[in-house]
Write a structure and sequence with these properties.
homodimer, mainly alpha, Arc Repressor Mutant, subunit A, Tetracycline Repressor, domain 2, 0% strand, disordered N terminus, DNA-binding
Chain lengths: 250, 250
DNA sequence: ACTAGCGTCATACGCGCGTTTGACGCACGT
DNA sequence: ACGTGCGTCAAACGCGCGTATGACGCTAGT
């Protein structure tokens, strides 16, 4: 049996994936080079192409390894809830999205910085990442979109898309940078807060944005006054900037 | 007088800035190369370095030219409101942020795709863009942070930072991609909606997230039930994945 | 008419990128 | 003992990047 050789190969694969994950988390897809990956992994530059074929394939494998389980658990949790109560409300659906993420974030097997990785993935602008998400997780997104649509019948379907985009973009934006540390640290305000309450606070933050009514006359009136005030100001300003005659000497 | 020469130089500068803006809007800072810029501008590769010194200086000049006016108008509008009513509420402050952006978005002088540019700038992850925003507009952000803090006294200052980051990140994320078209098109649902009502809807969407109370016992209970449900599921799942004895042949 | 200087131009330099290549070592099956 | 093949290695390839360098034309002042 070729014990050491086979183990060494598996070890190299793992080290490459670990290094790639670590670098991806704090540099994103752009700014992630094979030379940095292999240097951090302590392997030769050619190792990536030998074990994975090319860079993108390795990244895809890394993302699948990390994200498949998350979305699978989200989906099964949604199934379980719909089977139990058959119409989960908005806050429950948000909880279904958040709870598995937080649990995997606490699980060392899912990666030591799983939440950071999650934030990067959802907020990275590179076409490679966007395509990967689109191709792998579109049906899951569709299921949740339908669940939200049933939970929020008063929100038109077109505006619901905007609001979901809005809410999830913001969440990923918060997860992405170092803010996750601040979130966990500052929300707990010194004393350690149980995950349950922390997630409840997040739900309390996002849910009102999804549930909100479309816009009251009072809000329209406030905006209208601001528009008038701003236009008056800018007209006065432009008249000042283009004086009718030549100005006196400076 | 050296008429043609001077005009041609100014014309080249303008064409370079226009090309850079256009490319930056739909490719971001990364994926923006001087060869593409100069090709679109119809100039020589060396033109950028001749007129601006280097690439980053040109980008900085472009951003300042576009964003300085926006933030100046926001600031003066905030000043005017605070002078008038001395405690603008949350919805009003959001309106102060949105109204000048929308007005400049309608102004051809501010760039034909000003809102797209705005979204790109606020959501671009590159250190260059982030540093520029940090260095130029930190005091403006501080003024608005204080205004929000006064308008939302029940929100702890640490959580307010999170919520503002949350709300503004999401907004920039929506502005960034092609979603701004969808926003304008789908929110109006076929018939053209006045800007006033469109902005009122945006305020109606964002304001509840900032104003929301910190988390009710009912929300905590919902999350708690989901956590238990998820853990039961994952334990059953892991037991299935690591069976006690060797499986029968496949 | 001549020259100075500005704006443009083709071209080249050095660098980092992803990928490819062929040689080397070493554990293995025979 | 020997050949086979797997995993690793240094080195190189072609490419696109930002920047630097002289040469060229044309305008304008003397």
């Amino acid at each position: 049996m070729r014990t050491t050789g086979g183990n060494q190969a598996a070890e190299t694969r793992r080290r490459l994936l670990d290094a790639a994950e670590h670098l991806f988390i704090d540099r994103g897809y752009e700014g992630l080079s094979m030379r940095q990956i292999t240097a951090h992994a302590g392997t030769n530059l050619a190792a990536v192409n030998y074990h994975f074929g090319n860079k993108d394939t390795m990244l895809r494998e890394l993302l699948s390894q990390r994200l498949d389980r998350l979305n699978e658990e989200r989906l099964q949790l949604l199934d379980a809830c719909e089977a139990a109560e058959q119409l989960p409300d908005c806050e429950t659906i948000l909880g279904i999205l958040f709870v598995p993420a937080m649990q995997l974030g606490r699980d060392p097997d899912a990666g030591p910085a799983f939440l950071r990785l999650l934030g990067r993935v959802y907020s990275d602008a590179s076409p490679f990442i966007r395509d990967h998400l689109q191709q792998h997780y579109r049906p899951i997104f569709g299921r949740f979109f339908d669940a939200f649509a049933r939970a929020l019948p008063h929100v038109p379907r077109s505006e619901l898309g905007l609001r979901l985009h809005f809410a999830l973009k913001s969440l990923s934006g918060v997860l992405a940078t170092d803010d996750m540390d601040e979130l966990v640290a500052e929300l707990s305000m010194g004393q350690s807060i149980p995950d349950t309450e922390l997630l409840a606070r997040l739900v309390a933050l996002v849910s009102p944005a999804l549930t909100a009514p479309l816009g009251t006359p009072a809000q329209v009136e406030k905006i209208h006054r601001l528009q008038q005030l701003s236009q008056v100001r800018s007209m006065a300003c432009s008249r000042k900037h283009t004086p009718p005659a030549a100005p006196a000497e400076a």
